[in-house]
């Protein structure tokens, strides 16, 4: 137990902050994912062939390629790409992107592909009559989406989004390869310096289980809220 | 880009070996735990649920690290014959993948067994067919058909999961891709080639499952 003590003698406080880091990266990635889903869901539903192709390309490639490979692409290619863009604007200094941003964007793009599929499925399962009724009543497109489609869609999407959240949470463990100190990286450091990998990796597993358990409970509450009236 | 292709293709062999071995063992493990989940004994049921909960609730990376780095720490294990297996990263990766895919497979098969209408089993019983034959000849074939789409997804997830073998020094497709990226600093080209190979495998798996679904559909 002294291995988990807070303060200088143990790893308790380090692991605590690492857990907060995991939560921070997961939440950021999830929101970046929503942002991507917001762009690509309409593309996937579009009747325009080319737009449709772009939407399908995104979800197929990201869901068919290992997460680790995507992370390596961003880790090794991220600062090069930013520097290239900066050089167009006449800035030639070396730019290093912070590991948090690289990781959150990489996981966000992955999570976005899954969210896109969830939103597409949810919108498609809303009765067509709802769209037509809104049109007949002369409701404009904006109100139609925010007041009629979105609330119904969310109810259908929440159970699947909770799966996406679990995937995202677990995927953040892969960012440890880039050196960001989250649960996995901190356990790696602790295991290396105490030569007790079994204990620290098992403890990391417990922390992840705790995170998935708590988030499940919260999501169930959210689900109950959006299912009022059903 | 062209020079990296043969190296990456060679590494694909390891990826495929890891994938097929873990799917093979994982299927049996999954079936075993799915049957335990359907057991009426509360303790056995809870045990099987605990297994799938733990392995589905933690990242695969943690599982590999516990098995590869963690188990070697137990002095006793080093003296047994198990050590021959556990000192090899290749077998550690297969064990971790098997346990992981076994957990997901058990959930897929359990829900497939539960969707079988009780009338089908009753019909078998009333025809005087023994319980064993009902299970092997009626329930399992129906469950396999029911679980095909979900299992297809699991195969693709597992294929992507094998990329984690590169974290325990194995040179699989992702491992070699990372090595080439870090020596040539050409991340985009290598990503396109390695990603393309992965996508190609996804495409094949997807179509095989689709074909099987059609072949075993009820119509």
Blueprint (SSEs and pairs):
The complex is a heterodimer of chains A (230) and B (219).
Chain A (H helix, E strand, L loop, with lengths): L11 H34 L3 H16 L2 H22 L10 H26 L3 H9 L4 H31 L11 H12 L2 H30 L4
Helix pairs in contact in A: 1-2, 1-4, 1-6, 1-7, 2-4, 3-4, 4-6, 5-6, 6-8, 7-8
Chain B lengths: L3 H34 L4 H16 L2 H11 L4 H5 L2 H5 L2 H27 L2 H9 L4 H31 L11 H12 L2 H29 L4
Task: Describe the fold and architecture.
- The complex is a heterodimer of chains A (230) and B (219).
- Chain A has one domain (23-183): MetI-like (MetI-like fold, Orthogonal Bundle).
- By secondary structure, chain A is mostly helical.
- Chain A starts with 11 loop residues before the first helix and ends with a helix.
- In chain A, α2 crosses α4 (99-124) and α3 (67-88) packs across α4 (99-124).
- Helices cover 78% and strands 0% of the residues of chain A.
- Chain A is globular, with a radius of gyration of 21 Å.
- Chain A is built from eight helices and no strands.
- Chain B is mostly helical and 219 residues long.
- Chain B has a single domain (4-215), classed as MetI-like (MetI-like fold, Orthogonal Bundle).
- Chain B has ten helices and no strands.
- The longest helix of chain B has 34 residues, at 4-37.
- The radius of gyration of chain B is 20 Å and the shape is flat.
- The relative contact order of chain B is 0.15.
- Chain A binds chain B through residues 60-61, 63-69, 72-73, 76-77, 80, 166, 170-171, 173-174, 176-177, 184, 187-188, 191, 195-199, 201-202, 204-205, 208-209, 212-213, and chain B through 53-54, 57-63, 65-66, 69-74, 156, 159-164, 166-167, 174, 177-178, 181-182, 185, 187-188, 191, 194-195, 198-199, 202-203.
């Amino acid at each position: 137990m002294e291995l988990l003590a807070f303060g200088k003698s143990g790893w308790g406080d380090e692991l605590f902050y690492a857990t907060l880091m995991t939560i921070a990266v997961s939440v950021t990635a999830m929101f970046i994912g929503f942002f991507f889903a917001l762009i690509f869901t309409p593309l996937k539903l579009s009747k325009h062939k080319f737009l449709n192709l772009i939407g399908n390309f995104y979800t197929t490639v990201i869901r068919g390629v290992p997460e680790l490979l995507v992370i390596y692409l961003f880790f090794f290619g991220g600062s090069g790409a930013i520097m290239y863009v900066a050089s167009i604007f006449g800035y030639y200094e070396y730019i290093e992107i912070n590991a948090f941003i690289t990781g959150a964007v990489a996981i966000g793009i992955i999570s976005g592909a899954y969210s896109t599929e969830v939103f597409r499925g949810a919108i498609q399962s809303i009765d067509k009559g709802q769209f037509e009724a809104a049109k007949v009543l002369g409701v404009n497109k904006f109100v139609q989406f925010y007041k009629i489609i979105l609330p119904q869609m969310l109810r259908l999407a929440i159970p699947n989004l909770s799966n996406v959240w679990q995937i995202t949470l677990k995927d953040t463990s892969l960012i440890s390869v880039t050196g960001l100190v989250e649960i996995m990286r901190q356990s790696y450091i602790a295991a290396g310096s105490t030569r007790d990998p079994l204990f620290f990796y098992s403890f990391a597993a417990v922390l992840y289980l705790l995170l998935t358990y708590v988030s499940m409970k919260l999501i169930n509450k959210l689900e109950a809220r959006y299912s009022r009236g059903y | 880009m062209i020079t990296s292709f043969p190296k990456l293709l060679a590494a694909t062999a390891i990826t495929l070996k890891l994938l097929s071995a873990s799917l093979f063992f994982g299927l049996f493990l999954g079936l075993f735990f799915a049957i335990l989940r359907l057991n009426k004994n509360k303790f056995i049921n809870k045990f099987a649920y605990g297994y799938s909960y733990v392995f589905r609730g933690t990242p695969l990376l943690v599982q590999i690290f516990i098995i590869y780095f963690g188990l070697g720490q137990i002095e006793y294990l080093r003296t047994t014959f198990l050590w021959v297996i556990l000192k090899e990263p290749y077998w550690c990766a297969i064990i971790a993948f098997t346990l992981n895919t076994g957990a997901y497979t058990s959930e897929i098969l359990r829900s497939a067994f539960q969707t079988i209408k009780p009338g089908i089993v009753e019909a078998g019983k009333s025809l005087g067919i023994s319980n064993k034959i009902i299970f092997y000849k009626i329930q399992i074939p129906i469950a396999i058909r029911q679980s095909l789409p979900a299992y297809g997804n699991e195969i693709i997830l597992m294929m992507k999961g094998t990329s984690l073998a590169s974290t325990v020094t194995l040179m699989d497709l992702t491992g070699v891709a990372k090595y080439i990226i870090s020596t040539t600093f050409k991340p985009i080209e290598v990503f396109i080639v390695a990603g393309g190979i992965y996508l190609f495998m996804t495409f094949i798996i997807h179509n095989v499952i689709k074909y099987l679904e059609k072949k075993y559909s009820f119509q």
